[in-house]
Write a structure and sequence with these properties.
Blueprint: H1 6-19, E1 24-28, H2 31-42, E2 46-52, E3 59-64, E4 66-67, E5 72-73, E6 78-80, E7 89-90, E8 104-109, E9 112-115, H3 116-121, E10 126-132
Antiparallel strand pairs: 1-3, 2-3, 4-5, 6-10, 7-10, 8-9, 8-10
Amino acid sequence: MAANDTIADMLTRIRNANLARHQTTQVPATKMTRSIAKVLREEGFIADFEEAGEGVTRNLVISLKYKGKNRQPLINTLKRVSKPGLRVYSNKKELPRVLGGIGIAIISTSSGIMTDREARRQNLGGEVLCYVW
């Protein structure tokens, strides 16, 4: 199924899998979804991801993380900020802080996809893709 907004599709699939307490979820593999999954893994929100499938039907299999005996999801909220109909950009001085630094904002910069902290460290601004906490 073709999705116009692959980032929103990815975030929704992760959100739904978390609510259903699934161990893994699949999202269509693109450069953007790979980069976002890499940032989520580096920040400790997901356990790991790997590519499965061949040719056009490549998918990322994302392993989710839970905490405690009740298996509470590590990701409480995934919020899409910049949408295809309304792009949201931020310069290096106005990069958002999510929950006072507890969460992360994923930013698309000229140097690739990174967190708001990394963009601040490199003095870069860019498109604010989503918030995660």
